[in-house]
Design brief:
BirA Bifunctional Protein, domain 2, 2 domains, 7-stranded mixed beta sheet, two-stranded antiparallel sheet, binds 3,4-dihydroxyphenylalanine
Length: about 350
């Protein structure tokens, strides 16, 4: 029996050094100390030991059993500590490591300007309207008092899809669309893309952007137009900016004017100013009182209602504001350029 015990102790010690995880250690524990384990078998065999040897043998067996149990327990503690340390190391998060910075997009400078202009007019009670870029000749020209063969059509050499359909040459057809579908009072602005046949260069593009404004109500007069545009200029360019109304011609307004603002950059003092080129004035928009013919064609009685309209190019405003000297940059979508705004 002594031999048997020695063998079990040796085998268990060998197995212990091979038990690399708690699972195999638990298997060993069952194999030695479990119900059918080797030490349990030995205890069962005590009956066969002669009565005089039994007490000494019993003590020895119990000692060995206790020793093995302690060895296994100690190893169990070791293993579980090591496993815990390993897990902590593997799952460690270093909260001091700098994160990956997400790439933030930006609004196109033109979009920023559209929103700024829009906000100013919305603040004055205008609603934002929308119209199609592929337009009919009817809305783009006819309803705006530009009949076929009218010389004013020459100012806007257009992309015709066919005789009746055209890429809109200005945002003004949205005026006609609104007037033919809504009852006054009307107070809208409509930003959007417009198209004209043009050679691409630093100041010309066949695609560009405008924002149109229209107000129709009872008793609207030139004073409302002037007040509205003056207020716009001040909010857009600063309190000290002045406006200048020059008589002009548009078929859809009568009287018509072009509006300049005093140079917000040099105030007219720099003969080489990149915005006003020394003139002290910057041309920003066309406007006028809606021609009674247009009101009538759009189903609004000019005896009852009157109104004003204006339209301005947004690309030039954007370039002036940001000091962009080549219009093409706005359309090339080069992130190295767009990232600067
Ligand atoms: N549609 C004109 C253009 O593209 C701009 C314009 C002038 C719009 C006068 C208007 C206006 O509404 O009243 O040149």
């Amino acid at each position: 029996m002594q031999d048997q015990l020695d063998k079990i102790v040796k085998e268990t010690q060998d197995a212990l050094s091979n038990a690399k995880d708690t699972a195999s250690l638990e298997a060993l524990r069952v194999k030695v100390l479990g119900k059918k384990g080797s030490m349990t078998q030995i205890l069962r065999g005590m009956g066969a030991v002669s009565a005089d040897q039994r007490p000494a043998m019993g003590r020895l067996v119990n000692e060995v059993r206790a020793k093995l149990e302690e060895l296994i327990n100690r190893q169990a503690e070791n293993l579980s500590r090591m496993e815990k340390e390993m897990r902590l190391k593997l799952e460690a998060v270093d909260v001091t490591i700098p994160g990956t910075e997400p790439v933030m997009g930006k609004l196109h400078p033109l979009t920023q300007v559209v929103r700024q202009v829009q906000d100013i007019f919305v603040g004055m009670g205008f609603a934002v309207a929308d119209g199609p870029e592929v337009e009919t000749d009817h809305y783009n020209f006819e309803l705006l008092n530009v009949p076929k063969n009218h010389p004013a059509r020459d100012m806007q050499d257009s992309f015709y899809i066919n005789g009746e359909i055209v890429l809109r040459t200005h945002t003004s057809p949205v005026q006609a669309r609104i007037m033919t579908t809504r009852k006054p009072p009307i107070r809208i602005i409509c930003p959007g893309r417009v198209y004209r046949v043009d050679q691409v260069d630093a100041t010309h593009s066949p695609v560009f952007h405008q924002i149109e404004g229209l107000v129709i109500d009872k008793g609207i007069h030139l004073g409302h137009l002037k007040g509205t545009l003056d207020e716009f200029a001040r909010r857009m360019y600063g309190e000290s900016v002045k406006t200048r109304f020059r008589p002009s011609f548009f078929p859809f307004t009568e009287p018509s004017a072009e509006v300049d603002i005093s140079c917000y950059l040099c105030g007219g003092k720099d003969p080489n100013c990149r915005v006003c080129h020394g003139s002290g004035w910057i041309e920003v928009l066309g406007c006028g009182m809606v021609n009674p013919n247009v009101l009538t064609m759009c189903g609004i009685d000019p005896q009852e209602y009157s109104g004003f309209a204006f339209g301005m190019g947004l690309d030039r405003i954007t370039n002036g504001k940001y000091g962009i000297t080549d219009l093409r940059l706005l359309f090339e979508n080069d992130l190295r350029f767009l990232d600067q705004f």
